[in-house]
C-alpha cells in the first residue's frame, strides 16, 4: 500500500479527480496526453500514467473570471469545466462493428450514434449552455459540411449532427452524438462549446474516425444482406483468381484491413491524392460520396501520377523491387509505402493493385470484392475491337497498341449512383491497374456493372474501356513482312470476357458472375447490346484497321480446322507435351503447311522469348483428323520462364490458295505444391507451431529459396525464412510459430 503522511490540497484534488474517472472503464487519450500536477512524486506519477482516465490539463481548462473562497461557493459560482472524458471505446466499437480494428482508437460509422461520458467540475444547471463542434480536414467549414456546430439537447434530432443528453447524474453527463448518414468520412475532432458565468469558450475533447456504414439504410453504401456484408466488409482474407480460361487457378490474399496501423495508412492515402493537394477543402468535403472516394483510390493505389502506393511492372524483370508474384497480401505493401516516406512500392501487377484497393475499400466500410475477367481486352482506341497480329511463320507480333490479357483483375464496390439514377446502383467497377488515362490520370471507374450489361457506354465513368474489356471483338491479322502489309484473318466475337469470377460468399469456391456483365454469348441480346454500344461511340471512332470489322473476311471459309491439346503433365521442370490436332473438313485431300512457335509470356500478353519452333507439311485424307506431337523440353524454356509460368504456342496452318488458320493456346505450368501442417491445437493468444513441406521437383539443386508467410490475426507483420539449398528431388521441412489473436476459421 502506498501511503503519504502529508497531502497538499492540489494532490487531494488530483486523487479525487483520478478516482472519480476510473470507474468508467476504457478512455481515449486526448492528443496532448494526460497532464499531471507538477508536484507529484514518481510513484504517484506512475500510478497516474497507468490509470485509464483522461485528464484535461490545467492549460486546457478555462479559468473563471472571478475568484472564490470556499468549496461550497466554488460549486455555486465557478464556471463549468470538463474534467475528463470516457469515450466508452469498447461498447462504441462493438455497436459500430469496428471492434476488429487493432488498437483503442474510437472508430465509428456515420448515421449511427455513439456515446461518451464527461465529468464536470460541478453539476450542470440551467444557467449553463453546452454545445459541440465536429470538424474534419485542414479547413473545416459549415458551408462545406466539414464542420458542424450543434447544441446539447434532450431529444433526438434527425438528419444532421446532434448531441442528446442521455443522463445527468451529479457531475457526470452521458451524451450521445449522432452523425448524418452522408457525412464526409475520415478523422474528426470533437470540441465542446461552453457558455457559463459569462464565459464563452471552446475546448477540444479528442479525435475519432468516422467511416461509411453499410448497416444503415440511409447510407449510400447500405447492403441489406447480412452474409454479404460479412464477406464484403468484415472478411480480412480472400482468394484472387488467376491463370487462363483453360486453367483457372487461385492465389490467397491477406487483405488485413484490421491490422495495426492499416486504417491510418488507408486514410493517409486520401491526404496524398492529387485532388487533396490541389484543393484540400473541396476534396475533404467530397469524401461523403463513395463514388468520389472510390475514383480517388483507383488513382492512388497505383503510383503513376501521384506517388501512389504501388509501381506497376510487366517487363518480366523486377530488379530493384519484388516480383509481384511474391506478395501475399496488402499489409506489407501499405506499411512499406508509409515506411518509405510514401514512395511507390515496387512492384505490382493487376491482382496486387486489386488486392490492395480491396483492403482500403473494406477498411473505409465500402463493401467490395475482387473480380477476375479471363481473356480481358485492352482496347486503346475505343472501337470495341482488339487487333492481334502474327507473321506468316506463326510468330506473334508486338504490333499495335491493343492487347488481350490472359486474365485481368479489378474491384467492385457497392454503392448508389445518385448521378445516374437508382437502376445503376449496386456493384461498380473500380480498377487501380494503370492502363489508360482518364481525365488525365491513370484511374478507372466507378463504372456501373448494370450499365456495362446494357451497353450504356455514354455514362460515367470510363464505360467504353470497361465494356470493351468484357465484350470486344478479337480481330486476327496476318502480317506480310515482304511488302509490310497485313490482311484480316478472322473475327472472334465470343472469346473476350470469359469466366468472370469472384470468391463466393462464405466459402472458398469460385462464383461465376459473367451474366452480371453481359448477356449470353451468341444471343441476340448480346449482339444488340454490342451494336448499341458501338453506335454510341461511333461519332468518336477513328478510322483504323479494326474499323473494317463488318467486312467479310477475304476468301472462302477454310477447309481445315485446328486446335492444341495438352497430352502430358504441366509442371515446372518437366517436358511440355502437346498435340496439334488438324482435321480436314472436306471430301478432298488437303496438304497443309504448318509453322509453329512457342514463346514464354507475361500474363498480359507481353512476349518474353521464343523457346521453340517447328515447320511441317501434313497431308490429310478426306475428313481425316491427325495429331501432330509438340514437345518443349525444360532446357528450352527454363531460362526464359517468368513467374507467371506461361507459354504461348501458335500454329499458322495454310492450304494453298486458302486463308490461313491460326491456332493458339496458352499453357500454365504448375509450381510444386506447398503443404502446411498445424502441429498443435490452435488457441487464441497461444503460440502454435506450423510446418511447411516442400519438395524440389528438379533434377538440379535449388538455391536461394525464401519462404514468406503472412496471415491476418495469425502473425504480427510477416515472416521471411531463408530455406537451405535443396538437392535434386529433396524434401524440405520448415517450422515456424504463429500466434492467433482472433477466433474463427483461417
Describe this structure in words.
- There is one protein chain.
- The protein has 746 residues and is an alpha+beta fold.
- Helices cover 19% and strands 35% of the residues.
- The strands form 10 sheets. The chain has a 9-stranded mixed β-sheet, with helices on both faces.
- Helix 6 (262-271) crosses helix 11.
- The protein is elongated.
Task: Quickly count the helices.
Answer: 16
Helix content: 10-25%
Average pLDDT, rounded to a whole number, is: 87
The largest sheet is:
9 strands, mixed
- Sheet/helix structural class: alpha+beta
Termini separation comes to 46 Å
Radius of gyration: 32 Å
pLDDT < 50 runs, ≥5 residues: 1-55, 57-75, 540-554
Q: Tally of extended strands?
A: 37
Shape category: elongated
Lateral strand order in the biggest sheet: 1-3-7-6-5-4-8-9-2
- Proportion in β-strands: 25-35%
Pfam families: Transglut_C, Transglut_core, Transglut_N
Protein name: Transglutaminase-like domain-containing protein
Family: Belongs to the transglutaminase superfamily. Transglutaminase family.
InterPro entries: Ig-like_fold, Ig_E-set, Papain-like_cys_pep_sf, Transglutaminase, Transglutaminase-like, Transglutaminase-like_sf, Transglutaminase_animal, Transglutaminase_C
Amino acid at each position: 500500500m502506498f501511503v503519504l503522511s502529508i497531502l497538499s490540497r492540489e494532490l487531494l484534488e488530483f486523487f479525487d479527480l483520478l478516482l472519480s474517472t476510473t470507474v468508467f472503464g476504457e478512455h481515449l487519450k486526448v492528443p496532448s496526453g494526460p497532464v499531471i500536477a507538477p508536484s507529484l512524486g514518481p510513484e504517484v506519477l506512475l500510478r497516474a500514467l497507468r490509470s485509464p482516465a483522461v485528464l484535461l490539463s490545467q492549460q486546457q481548462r478555462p479559468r473563471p473570471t472571478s475568484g472564490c473562497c470556499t468549496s461550497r461557493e466554488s460549486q455555486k459560482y465557478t464556471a463549468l469545466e470538463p474534467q475528463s472524458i470516457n469515450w466508452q471505446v469498447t461498447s462504441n466499437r462493438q455497436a459500430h462493428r469496428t471492434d476488429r480494428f487493432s488498437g483503442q482508437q474510437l472508430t465509428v460509422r456515420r448515421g449511427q450514434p455513439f456515446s461518451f461520458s464527461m465529468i464536470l467540475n460541478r453539476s450542470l444547471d440551467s444557467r449553463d449552455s453546452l454545445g459541440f463542434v465536429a470538424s474534419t480536414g485542414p479547413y473545416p467549414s459549415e458551408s462545406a459540411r466539414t464542420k458542424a456546430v450543434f447544441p446539447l439537447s434532450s431529444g433526438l434530432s434527425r438528419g444532421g449532427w446532434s448531441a442528446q443528453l442521455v443522463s445527468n447524474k451529479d457531475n457526470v453527463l452521458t451524451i450521445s452524438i449522432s452523425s448524418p448518414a452522408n457525412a464526409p468520412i475520415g478523422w474528426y475532432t470533437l470540441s465542446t462549446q461552453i457558455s457559463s458565468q459569462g464565459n464563452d469558450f471552446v475546448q477540444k475533447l479528442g479525435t475519432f474516425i468516422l467511416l461509411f456504414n453499410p448497416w444503415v439504410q440511409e447510407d449510400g453504401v447500405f447492403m441489406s444482406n447480412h452474409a454479404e456484408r460479412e464477406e464484403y466488409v468484415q472478411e480480412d482474407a480472400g482468394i484472387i483468381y488467376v491463370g487462363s480460361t483453360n486453367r483457372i487457378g487461385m492465389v490467397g490474399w491477406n487483405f488485413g484491413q484490421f491490422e495495426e496501423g492499416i486504417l491510418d495508412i488507408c486514410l493517409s492515402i486520401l491526404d496524398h491524392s492529387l485532388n487533396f493537394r490541389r484543393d484540400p477543402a473541396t476534396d475533404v468535403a467530397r469524401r461523403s460520396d463513395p463514388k468520389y472516394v472510390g475514383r480517388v483510390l483507383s488513382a492512388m493505389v497505383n503510383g503513376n501520377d501521384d506517388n501512389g502506393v504501388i509501381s506497376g511492372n510487366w517487363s518480366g524483370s523486377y530488379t530493384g523491387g519484388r516480383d509481384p508474384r511474391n506478395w501475399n497480401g496488402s499489409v506489407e505493401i501499405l506499411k512499406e509505402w508509409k515506411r518509405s516516406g510514401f514512395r511507390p512500392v515496387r512492384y505490382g501487377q493487376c491482382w496486387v493493385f486489386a488486392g490492395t484497393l480491396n483492403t482500403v475499400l473494406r477498411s473505409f466500410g465500402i463493401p467490395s470484392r475482387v473480380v477476375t475477367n479471363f481473356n480481358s481486352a485492352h482496347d486503346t482506341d475505343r472501337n470495341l475491337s482488339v487487333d492481334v497480329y502474327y507473321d506468316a511463320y506463326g510468330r506473334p507480333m508486338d504490333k499495335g497498341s491493343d492487347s488481350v490479357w490472359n486474365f485481368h483483375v479489378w474491384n467492385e464496390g457497392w454503392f448508389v449512383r445518385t448521378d445516374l439514377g437508382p437502376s445503376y446502383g449496386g456493384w461498380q467497377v473500380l480498377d487501380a491497374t494503370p492502363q489508360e488515362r482518364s481525365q488525365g490520370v491513370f484511374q478507372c471507374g466507378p463504372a456501373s456493372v448494370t450499365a456495362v450489361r446494357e451497353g450504356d457506354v455514354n455514362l460515367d465513368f470510363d464505360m467504353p474501356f470497361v465494356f470493351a474489356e468484357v465484350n470486344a471483338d478479337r480481330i486476327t491479322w496476318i502480317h506480310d513482312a515482304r511488302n509490310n502489309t497485313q490482311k484480316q484473318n478472322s473475327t472472334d466475337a465470343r472469346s473476350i470476357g470469359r469466366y468472370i469470377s469472384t470468391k463466393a460468399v462464405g466459402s472458398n469456391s469460385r462464383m461465376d458472375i459473367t451474366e452480371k456483365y453481359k448477356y449470353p454469348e451468341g444471343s441476340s441480346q448480346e449482339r444488340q447490346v454490342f451494336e448499341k454500344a458501338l453506335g454510341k461511340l461511333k461519332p468518336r471512332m477513328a478510322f483504323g484497321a479494326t474499323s473494317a470489322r463488318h467486312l467479310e473476311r477475304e476468301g472462302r471459309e477454310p477447309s481445315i480446322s485446328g486446335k492444341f491439346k495438352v497430352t502430358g503433365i504441366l509442371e515446372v521442370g518437366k517436358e511440355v507435351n502437346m498435340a496439334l490436332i488438324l482435321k480436314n473438313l472436306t471430301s478432298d485431300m488437303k496438304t497443309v503447311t504448318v509453322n509453329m512457335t512457342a514463346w514464354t509470356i507475361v500474363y498480359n500478353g507481353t512476349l518474353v522469348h521464343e523457346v521453340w519452333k517447328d515447320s511441317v507439311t501434313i497431308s490429310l485424307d478426306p475428313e481425316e483428323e491427325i495429331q501432330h506431337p509438340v514437345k518443349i523440353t525444360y532446357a528450352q524454356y527454363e531460362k526464359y520462364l517468368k513467374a507467371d509460368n506461361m507459354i504461348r504456342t501458335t500454329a499458322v496452318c495454310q492450304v494453298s490458295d486458302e486463308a490461313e488458320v491460326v491456332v493458339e493456346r496458352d499453357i500454365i505450368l504448375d509450381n510444386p505444391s506447398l503443404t502446411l501442417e498445424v502441429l498443435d491445437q490452435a488457441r487464441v493468444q497461444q503460440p502454435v507451431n506450423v510446418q511447411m513441406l516442400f519438395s524440389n521437383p528438379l533434377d538440379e539443386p535449388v538455391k536461394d529459396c525464401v519462404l514468406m508467410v503472412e496471415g491476418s490475426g495469425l502473425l504480427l507483420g510477416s515472416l521471411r525464412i531463408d530455406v537451405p539449398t535443396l538437392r535434386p528431388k529433396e524434401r524440405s521441412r520448415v517450422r515456424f510459430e504463429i500466434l492467433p489473436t482472433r477466433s474463427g476459421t483461417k
